[in-house]
Amino acid sequence: DTVFVLNGPNINMLGLREPDIYGHDTLDDIASRLEDQAQALGIAIDMRQSNHEGHIVDWLQEANAVGARAVILNAAAFTHTSVAIHDAIKAIAVPVIEVHLSNPHKRESFRHVSLVGQAAKGTIAGFGALSYALALDAAAKL
Ligand code: DQA
């Protein structure tokens, strides 16, 4: 009973990257809190990050092949551009929960379209690191 937590480009820079927008937590900080939360929920998480679009596609297909309970996906900048990730979400049976630290709708207009959100089950955005925790709660209840 595993939830994949997939992160796209520049999410490895969390903590250093525009902290006024993304906060001071590193991806490792978020991962260790999610691990504790997952343990309390009685589920496992498999957390990954890549700067490469194809890795996200491969991992979505892998989540489906192993019968993951859900995917929590912060596709980062690929959110706004990737037809390949949109198609991969549509191709799999596993529910995908889109997450963002920031609220893209409050930001530049190029962030207002989400190709991920147009294929995902639902979206949680704007709560900083808490967006991931809310998504994990949702995944546990699916
Ligand atoms: C982000 C929002 C995206 O627009 C941006 O490209 C990111 C991070 C977020 O978590 O707020 O890299 O996905």
TrEMBL record:
GO terms for molecular function: 3-dehydroquinate dehydratase activity. The record marks 17 as: Transition state stabilizer. InterPro entries: DHquinase_II, DHquinase_II_CS. The keyword Amino-acid biosynthesis applies. Substrate binds at residues 74, 80, 87, 101-102, 111. PROSITE patterns: DEHYDROQUINASE_II. It is an enzyme of class 4 (lyase). It catalyses: 3-dehydroquinate = 3-dehydroshikimate + H2O. It comes from the Bacteria. Its EC number is 4.2.1.10. The keyword Zinc-finger does not apply. The active site is at residues 22, 100. HAMAP family: AroQ. Homododecamer. Belongs to the type-II 3-dehydroquinase family. Catalyzes a trans-dehydration via an enolate intermediate. This is 3-dehydroquinate dehydratase. The lineage of its organism: Bacteria, Pseudomonadati, Pseudomonadota, Alphaproteobacteria, Sphingomonadales. The gene is aroQ.
